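Worked example (supplementary).
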Amino acid sequence: MSIAPAADPAIRVQGLRKAYGELGVLRGVGFEVARGSIFALLGSNGAGKTTAVRILSTLLRADSGTASVNGFDVATRPGRVRESISLTGQFAAVDGILTGRENLVLVARLRHLRNPGRVADELLARFSLDGAGGRKASTYSGGMRRRLDIAMSLIGNPSIVFLDEPTTGLDPQARIEVWRSVQEMARGGTTVLLTTQHLQEAEELADRIAILHRGRILVEGTLEDLRRLLPPARVEHVEKQPSLEDVFLALVGEDGVDEVGVDDGAGEVGGGERAAGSGTRGRR
Amino acid sequence: MVTRFLADTATLTGRSMKHVTRSPDTIITTAVMPIAIMLLFVYVFGGAIDTGPEAASGSYVDYMLPGVLLITVAMGVSYTAFRLFTDVQGGIFDRFDSMPIARSSALWAHVLTSLAANLTSLVLVVGVALLMGFQTGAGGLDWLAVAGVLVLFTLALTWVAVVAGLSARTVEGASVFSYPLIFLPFVSSAFVPTTSMPGPVRWFAENQPVTSIVDTVRALFAGRPVDGSTWTALAWCVGILVLAHAFAMVTYRRKSA
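After joint prediction of all chains, the assembly is encoded as:
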């Protein structure tokens, strides 16, 4: 694994443009992501989030502009970029015919790791999938598939991980599980670039947020920076109503119902409260 | 670099082979249709078909087996296109392409899997033909030559299937390319001698790839020395193979344009 000088940002994008025919999907996008941070590209459908991620992960060529990942230009040194990154695409890219464990072993083999079986078992345990490791991934729930997907992306310890709408289509519990995985990743020093259309998700996870709209970045900064763009808060008396999500989570509990391994339930609830407590409760 | 390509291709082939071994129905359905055609032609139409003096000595099943084998391959490669299409759609290909693995390993894995699955189906069909009274004077070398021609034909059609699988937008689109391939043997020397066909049809039948390949395999099975049709057959197979491979690589690269 190649390490560029530490002062370098993990990702640097300048003047990135991409058009399909007449349709300009990216119209001069630029941003930087510091090493070890979580960066959210926030935008609605069609804003250009996926296109940006595909260019950064060497799947797509930009029309103009430059992008470098881990100090390597994506256009001229795609091989080195691929050694530095891992991509979790918009749809959980797991092989449904293989078991969860086989999926992990497959990726470990492709990364030429010495002991693919042990790597797989460790990740199954870490993502609370150890009870389901021997089952075909096609039998997994959406949340479990996503966790397997993310686990596959962590094999070989890539220094930069791209997550393209990691929680789209997931139920609230599964979403919290994914958030926990992302936070854990960042704690381990991994740089995370995630795209999302959920405002709350960006608020919850990201160190810095960029709002991408119609192929351009409108604003970029920390949550505090973005808050300062609007008039300062006024003090109002508002009756605190629980949101539907608060009600839903209170009723069904926050530990994933799709869990097969129950043994680690205690840790899950604790983590869930942490993740949800800072974000969803008592803000409205 | 080469060892890396081989290792990655082996890993990915192992993975897509599991798709075949875990749904053996794909091999069986590949073989069922050609076997049904064989039963139909031998026991229903066969009595009324005059295969001419060339094949007078053998039974009709001897005459038509080569054509049925080609139909088997044409059926089989539609599954190759289907498997490839599912990989592209499901995002697994994006995962492979964003990893530091040897380029085109992912495609070769599908090609090798296709070869293994088709050879298995071919063995099944030959087995049924033997039960139906197929007889051959072919020696070990002749069988080897038949296998060689069929491998070459399978590889050629597989790369055509790769193009279809990579460029299709729907599941149906991924497998529909094989219909004309399945139909082609009917307008060739596979089931009736081309001399019985009217002018333009006969011209087409005699100049399309299937006839030369069928004639070659038939000659090998009969233990006859190979003639000019063999070279024509090899030229067709290699030509299709090279062209389809080039086209597949362009399609593969264009995905990232």
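Two points are worth noting when inspecting this output. The mean pLDDT of chain B is 88. Chain B has one domain: 2-254.
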